[in-house]
Design goal:
Number of helices: 11
Order of helices and strands: EEEHHEHEHHEHHEHEEHHH
Radius of gyration: 20 Å
Strand order of the largest sheet: 3-2-1-4-5-6-7
Structural class: alpha/beta
Number of strands: 9
Helix content: 25-40%
Largest sheet: 7 strands, mixed
Shape: globular
Length: 285
Amino acid sequence: MPYDTADIHFYTDRIVVVYSSMTRSSFNNFLTFQISCRGIDWQVSSMAQLCNQLSGSFIISSIETLYIHAIQGKFPSTLEDVMDGTPWLELFHPFTAVRTLDISHTMQSHVVSALRGLSGELAMQVLPALEMLRIPWYQGSGPERHDMWPFIIARQRSNHPVVVHSEGMEDLDGIGGCPIPGCKTKHSRRQGFERHVREHLTHSWYCPRAGCGWRGHRHYLLQHHWRKRHQDVDPPSGEFLIFDPRGLARQLIDGETNIAQANREANRLVRERAIQLGKQDLWVV
């Protein structure tokens, strides 16, 4: 089965890429590569070489979502301090089917540095299928946003527009700030906003391994947990939801409940599910 998602994670002493299928029924469909090296310049160049060697293969050719996140380590965070963008362009080169590029806060200046100089036909040669760029901008009017304009405009003029989705941008769909007290997050799209609010609820995914008490918020986190903790056996296929958090998230957004009431209901569902699965002693709620 082809892969549709690639997660590139930067650590202090290594860089890791995980190719996986986000289709829930294909939980055990993943492939991991790790390169041990230090320094973001070496890490990007090494990963670019690996990915280009896989160019055209079933591993790369069907990737539609590309995540780039810093997991551990300190990396330059301003446009003045980042490395030359050429290795990043080489890294992006084989991902011709990527429709969504998701960049963490720590990595945003590196990606902006690479893409900001692209205009005209050059803008279509890098990530030609790109439709959505998720990047958290330091502020809605920050320098990174302005430096991206030539790339965004060039894509629009070529009839291949890229929608920029950012937690720091002004609200585009009339969605207010996060309803959770103390959280200042904003999203420009309802779907992303609901996904964020779900993470304020108690964990809704669980590990099906007997005797394991892991719980988490997202399916890909369950995949990562299994690869790290249960490498001795292949994971079973299926959905491993404790409860469906979408209804509670919508109620929170629409003001029909508050976080305390929502989590009380979520914890009730967790307790019921724990009894069904025999995990009462593993899940403390």
